[in-house]
Specification:
The structure holds 2 protein chains of 2 kinds. Chain A is mainly α. Chain A has 10 helices and no strands. By secondary structure, chain B is α+β, with helices and mostly antiparallel strands. Chain B is about 25% helix and about 10% strand. Classes of the chains: A mainly alpha, B alpha+beta.
């Protein structure tokens, strides 16, 4: 009786070990095969955790690129208006993301981090084009840049809004763009611009009022 | 128009082909292989500090270290904030002779620092030291192999004819004439003229140091070197004893010895004979006289004018300004004062197409955070109903660092 039990326990342990090892191999194979898919299914927070814990990899960067490429392009385009400038700024943004990805500590949201780099790149490009620019002043002459450019939607009111944005100071334009078009929360914009949420709300409120007046006048 | 309720879409729509092309372009630029991205490692440039061979204790140096612009003579402090850091390890430095020595302040490094075994052994060598091998430091370095003349002797003048110079060491002394005795062909002997003696000799130029184990080599002579000669040319002034002085050298020496004529050159201007006497007439009298002349000319001009005709007087009266003052009510009403700040750009539009535009009731609230909740709610209600607008904008973007990531 006891001998049979010992044999049974021995064979069971062998079977368990075999089962466990085969499962781990299957998991590893599946993991390698579907790593991009697994990353695609991760939420933004999970992706941040993955980035901090597992380190930088090209797969992670490609995932970040595919997630934020369009948003960053449109964000740069709203700030810079020109397609070529927006393309340059977006390219430089992701080059800096790749070069500095190992410095991301996960203290802010990944999207906020990428947006901040894109904003800095856009500002640098504006300064490069016009070194004497004053960001407290509106730049109405920028509206001329978007008269005939690539990838315009053709929506007349949207175009009018973009032209009206040129009559805002850059800081108000930035806050309005991030909030209205990109749907960033005040908390995210606060981190991105290092400004208090109250000031952002006031700035957004002022921008909306000015734009409404401008659009009603143009009608 | 209510922007917040009527959502306006984006003005730009880029096709997917653009984004795919942009993605592949970016990955190509970064060197990421899309087919095997796992093999790609980010090329993070990490600058590794070079291995420190020697350490220099720079504590207290930076306060004194200043660089001076040789043109403007302005001196600027260098890296004062490094004092707060403490001890700094500096990698070995290489200075080329092309650098302006005024920009490297070796005096800032204390001697006790430079004398440490583990630190840089920096010896101050001036241009005069290089020309004159009579250097106390060099004498100390070769002190072990040197013996000094124990007998006191009085040296009045030293005439040195031939010395071999090789890296500040004099190997052979052919003729060494001293008042009282003369030394000829002194080789393989050790002579050290002590520094104390040499200090008393104003004319002493070279301290003869003879090394024991060196054989007599071909004697050479150092010609007198003009002051204008640089270090790189110094070697060319070492020539064999029998060699004659180069004509160029003598020419340069002759030019230097030429007495400079300090007398002022003759000028083409004759000297002023003497100081002219000042006029006794006071200045105000001239001013008064000229004023009187102008007044007199005015009256004379009026007197000689022909009398005006009646027609001319009538025309003149018609051209006079009207005495009727326009009423301020006739002025057009402008809306400049009613346009709030920030809307000046659309001012023409507002004035032209929105004559009834009135300034909204804007109140500035400074301490919104400290308000009681009820007040906040009341303010919010007022704003929601369009009765007023509260300006809570503060120092926006004051802390924003656009340059940092």
């Amino acid at each position: 009786m006891s001998l049979n039990f010992i044999y049974f326990a021995h064979w069971k342990s062998l079977w368990d070990n075999f089962k466990k090892s085969s499962m781990s191999v299957d998991t590893a194979i599946a993991k390698n095969m579907s790593e991009p898919k697994r990353l695609q299914n991760l939420s933004e927070d999970e992706l941040s955790v993955e980035l901090v814990s597992a380190g930088v990899s090209a797969l992670l960067f490609i995932e970040i690129l595919s997630r934020y490429q369009q948003q960053i392009y449109y964000h740069c385009r709203n700030l810079l208006l020109s397609h070529d400038d927006a393309d340059d700024a977006a390219q430089n943004t992701f080059i800096k993301v790749w070069q500095n990805l190992h410095q991301f500590k996960g203290e802010s949201r990944l999207r906020t981090w990428v947006y901040r780099i894109a904003t800095n790149e856009s500002i640098n490009l504006i300064r490069k084009r016009k070194p004497t620019i004053d960001f407290d002043e509106a730049q109405p002459e920028m509206a001329d840049m978007m008269s005939e450019d690539l990838y315009l939607s053709g929506d007349e009111i949207a175009l009018k809004l973009q032209k009206a944005l040129c009559y805002l100071p850059f800081k108000q334009k930035l806050v309005f763009t991030l909030r209205y078009f990109e749907d960033l929360t005040y908390e995210e914009i606060s981190v991105l611009t290092s400004t208090s949420e109250g000031a952002l709300k006031a700035s957004y409120h002022h921008a909306v009022k000015k734009l409404e007046i401008y659009l009603s006048v143009l009608r | 128009m209510d922007l917040e309720n009527e959502k306006i879409g984006p003005a730009y729509i880029a096709p997917d082909t653009y984004f795919k092309e942009s993605e592949s372009r970016l990955l190509h630029r970064l060197g990421i292989d899309v087919n095997s991205p796992e093999a790609t490692v980010p090329n993070i440039e990490v600058i590794k500090p070079e291995a420190v061979v020697m350490k220099v204790d720079t504590s207290g140096i930076q306060k004194r270290a200043r660089k001076q612009d040789p043109l403007t003579s302005k001196s600027v402090g260098v890296y004062k904030e490094l004092d707060a850091v403490g001890k700094v390890e500096i990698a070995p430095l290489t200075f080329t002779t092309n650098e302006n020595p005024e920009w490297v302040n070796f005096s800032a490094i204390s001697e006790e620092t430079s004398g440490l075994v583990e630190s840089l052994n920096i010896t101050k060598v001036t241009y005069g030291d290089l020309l004159n091998p009579l250097d106390e430091t060099m004498a100390l370095e070769s002190a072990e192999s040197e013996t000094s003349i124990s007998e006191p002797m009085v040296v009045e003048s030293v005439e040195l004819e031939s010395i071999e110079v090789e890296s500040a060491e004099i190997e052979t002394l052919e003729t060494f004439e001293v008042t009282g005795f003369a030394i000829e062909e002194v080789t393989a002997e050790e002579i050290l003229v002590e520094a104390e003696m040499l200090e008393t000799l104003e004319e002493a130029v070279v301290e003869p140091i003879i090394e024991q184990n060196l054989e007599s080599t071909e004697s050479i002579i150092i010609h007198e070197v003009p002051e204008s000669v640089g270090l790189d040319e110094l070697e060319s002034y070492i020539a064999p004893i029998n060699a004659t002085k180069a004509p160029v050298i003598e020419e340069v020496l002759a030019q230097e010895e030429q007495v400079i004529n300090l007398e002022a050159p003759p000028t083409a201007f004759a000297p002023i004979a003497g100081r002219q006497k000042e006029s006794a007439t006071p200045g105000w009298l001239g001013i008064a006289a000229s004023f009187a002349a102008i007044v007199a000319a005015y009256f004379i001009w009026n007197a000689i004018q022909p009398p005006k005709t009646e027609e001319a007087m009538a025309t003149e009266l018609q051209q006079d300004e009207p005495t009727l003052i326009e009423s301020p009510l006739d002025e057009p009403v402008l809306f400049k004062d009613t346009i709030p700040d920030g809307l000046q750009l659309v001012e023409p539009l507002i004035n032209g197409e929105m004559p009834n535009y009135k300034e909204p009731n804007v109140y500035t609230i400074i301490d919104a955070k400290e308000m009681p909740p009820r007040t906040k709610r009341a303010l919010q209600d007022l704003e929601d109903n369009g009765l007023t607008t509260f300006d809570m904008e503060d120092e926006m973007f004051e802390e924003l660092d656009f340059e940092s990531l």
